[in-house]
Amino acid sequence: MPVRTEEKFNIPFYHIFYNPYFIIRSGIYKGIKKYSPDLTGHLMDFGCGTKPYEHLFRKTTKYTGVDYKGGGNNYKNTKVDIYYDGHKLPILDSTFDSVLSTEVIEHIFNPDEILKEIWRVLKPDGTFLLTCPFLWPEHEQPWDYARYSSFGIKHLLKKNGFKIISQEKTGNFPLCITQLLVLYLYMFIPKVPIVKHILFLIFCFPILLLGIIFNLVAPSIMKRKDLYLNNLVLCKKL
After folding, report:
1. Whole-structure pTM value
2. Contact 17, 201 (CB under 8 A)
């Protein structure tokens, strides 16, 4: 069954009662919020969709959304300012002070070409914040091309002219198992509005809650991060 990515990116705690993406989305949101002060000036949101994280970037002077027309971007109320053809950005060199790209690069079949374009339109010493999944089912099919390990995404960025400033993983073994089990069960819940909420509370919410509590109290040796959900990388243009 295909996994459809829903437009629920800002995840307050009460979403634990009904959101099957609670763990993965919380990790991404907290990571982007943590590094948002590092992105200043004119920012390009590459693969922006509905610009769900725009409100986090208060230090930017201008926020420009760029996206590919077509592909897996089927969101309603898309807020794209500039469309590109999947190869070249119709933007002058050294236009942006910073770039955000979240959960996009796995949908790009030509990552080297696109990263070189991002490098080109970013000013010298400009900041680039990128997130991408390591563990997640195929989604937005058939436009889902890759998963990157922490070593793979680091290599890809470095060979295309970026210096890694900070690199983190969201989630760990217990949270991954919890998130995938909840997602699996949710796939079988009928998507009838009231029914799905009741069944989620019965079957999914207890697993979410127990998994999160276990992760809080478990010893660090049990929180292995060689299985994790997402990469979060802050880098600079060399």
Report:
1. 0.92
2. yes
Structural element, H or E, at residue 111: helix 111-121
Length of the chain measured in residues: 238
According to DSSP, residue 226 is labeled S
Put the strands of the sheet holding 82-84 in their side by side order: 82-84, 60-68, 41-46, 96-102, 122-133, 230-237, 162-170
Nearest to 236 by CA among 160, 175, 178: 160
Q: What is the pLDDT of residues 139-172, one digit of tens each?
A: 999 999 999 999 999 999 999 999 999 999 999 9
User: In 3D, which of 108, 103, 126, 115 has the Cα closest to residue 234?
Assistant: 126
Which of the 8 DSSP states describes residue 6? P
SS3 state of residue 33: helix
Which domains occur in the chain, in start order?
21-172+226-237 (3.40.50.150), 174-222 (no CATH)
Instruction: Express as a percent the part of the chain with pLDDT over 70.
Output: 94
Q: SS3 breakdown of the chain: % helix, strand, coil, rounded to 5?
A: 40, 25, 40
Tokens of 128: 């680039």
Helices 173-186 and 205-217: angle between axes, nearest 10 degrees: 180
Beta strands at 162-170 and 230-237: parallel, antiparallel or unpaired: antiparallel
Q: Per-residue pLDDT tens for 99-113?
A: 999 999 999 999 999
Quote the tokens at residue 68.
């590919």
CA distance 6 to 11: 12
